């Protein structure tokens, strides 16, 4: 199948991206059908957020963490029914980021590192954590900070260890940044995939960092 992608700066014009070299009319039709289904899923969560006053009619996120968490939940529900080929996921996430919707109102965000794609981050987090846990973690800005380091996102276990630590030690984005950066530097040149969960955690815990436990600093 193919993924229908909006063309930057050209509303109404699309490209079709696929791992296949040649697309058939059936591939295009399936892509168009999937595009309508994901649009419907996004509109449904948009209505819920508007109704509950988490999102304004101008696209202002009154609670960004809640907005993105609900988007992530909606996408996880979508994926239970509609499967995206692993090799085509990059096209899917890129298209979501390029869509001009009330949920993500900022025309054409351009190329952004796949790991920092808000839709992808939200989908991952809402599949691993409850909203109540992420509330303890803090802001959406802090969440995005974690995903801004390549040496961290290369291993999802590192992401989980950091989030678990920050839930136990609530901090602001600025307060947590030195800790996150220290973890990033620690694992920058390390091939973590060869480590067991226990070995990774032991190395993670060698980072000596004292939290102030003050989210308002």
Brief characterization of the structure:
The protein has 217 residues and is mostly helical. The protein is 55% helix and 4% strand. The radius of gyration is 19 Å and the shape is globular.
Explain what this protein looks like in three dimensions.
- There is one protein chain.
- α1 (25-51) packs antiparallel against α2 and α2 packs across α4 (118-128).
- It contains 10 helices and 2 strands, in the order ββαααααααααα.
- The model has no long low-confidence stretch (mean pLDDT 88).
- The termini are far apart.
- The protein has helices at 25-51, 64-81, 89-98, 118-128, 131-137, 140-146, 150-153, 156-168, 173-187, 197-204; strands at residues 3-6, 14-17.
- It has a two-stranded antiparallel sheet.
- It is globular, with a radius of gyration of 19 Å.
- The longest helix is centred in the N-terminal third of the chain and has 27 residues, at 25-51.
- It is mainly alpha-helical.
- β1 and β2 (14-17) form a beta hairpin.
